[in-house]
Design brief:
Layout (H helix, E strand, L loop, with lengths): L2 E6 L14 E2 L2 E2 H11 L5 E5 L3 H10 L18 H13 L7 E4 L11 H11 L4 E7 L10 E4 L2 E4 L17 E11 H7 L7 E5 L11 H14 L1
Parallel strand pairs: 1-4, 1-5, 6-10
Antiparallel strand pairs: 2-3, 5-9, 6-9, 7-8
Amino acid sequence: MKILGVIPARGGSKGILGKNIKLLGGKPLLGYTIDSVVESKLLTKCILSSDSEEIIKAGKRLGVEIPFIRPAEFAKDETPSIEVIKHALEFFAASNEYFDTVCLLQPTTPFRRDGLIDDAIKKFDSGSYDSLVSVRKVPHQYNPHWVFEEKKGKLEIATGEKEIISRRQELPKAYHRDGAIYLTKTEVILNSNSLLGNKIGFIDTTDEDYVNLDSMEDWKKAEEILKKRS
């Protein structure tokens, strides 16, 4: 199985200025994801996709492959990750280089344990999945069976059930994506325009350090995690 790792890192972040190359614990944020890539033995190739000269220079110093500068049309605030991935696949296809699977690795979720990428790849390869994502357990008070949606000024159980599950012990396990890893078959990306498809596997990272960097409050949390680690 040929796997293309893609690290998306555009310029122009607003919540945290210069986020992708901002120093976290003395290292550019981008460096944490690149370290995880270097540690992986199962990724066939991994590239950085960026529109920013500054980020590209930093990426080169950190040793990641940068085969192109991402076109501005794929570097807007509203550009979905799947368009960034499709652009990368088309770039390599133009040189007759093809991949069975894509591994999306977002720098904004920097704390991946050693072996996580390869563990995810092994699980993905052993199952008949369209995709596999890293997830964390949802606390019971936020379980979708206990969450309400507003409809026409009234509340209804988000799952559509008429009666609420009364006991916490009876709630099914629920998970949310943590953004650390997306593995998706190339055919699902290109034919279904989806990063998930229908058969979704998962790897549970609930017990591991976690932050998804979107605001300076998140950044402070990341700094606290590093302090605890040291």
